[in-house]
């Protein structure tokens, strides 16, 4: 695995463990020789993981729509900064460059990105690993929502096998490096 896309908040969050987890993830990416691709901001957890990658001598690629330059502050020290026109192009470019995806804690943007790659994995558009860095059980309510969709008959029980869920960033990356996409059961009528 040479490049991982990280989805993360443009805010830092209230719990100090979020920032520490983002920093640890950045160090591990560099130690494993993995490039970072992400949304290009220097703010929040996005900026934290990019700063750590760069401070450790790694490569960080940012992808940002021109329309966000006034709202989000783009990171100026990146290895590569790719300008695109739309959010759709941003996500497509990040997905094209990445061999896997990691979600750090975040808000609606992070959830939207995560749900898209999760859904696309389910229907076979990609076969890349998806990791959740579940710092302070941040993603537990999301996982409960997926379990509720299974219980209600809207998703197959094995859908959660598409996600690698870990609290420790090193364990998460190691599992992603060894990932083999599970074969999912067929939809029921």
UniProtKB/TrEMBL annotation:
Transmembrane segments: none annotated. Its EC number is 3.2.2.n1. GO terms for cellular component: cytosol. One of its GO terms (molecular function) is hydrolase activity, hydrolyzing N-glycosyl compounds. One of its GO terms (biological process) is cytokinin biosynthetic process. Keywords: Cytokinin biosynthesis, Hydrolase. It comes from the Bacteria. It holds the Pfam family Lysine_decarbox. Belongs to the LOG family. This is Cytokinin riboside 5'-monophosphate phosphoribohydrolase.
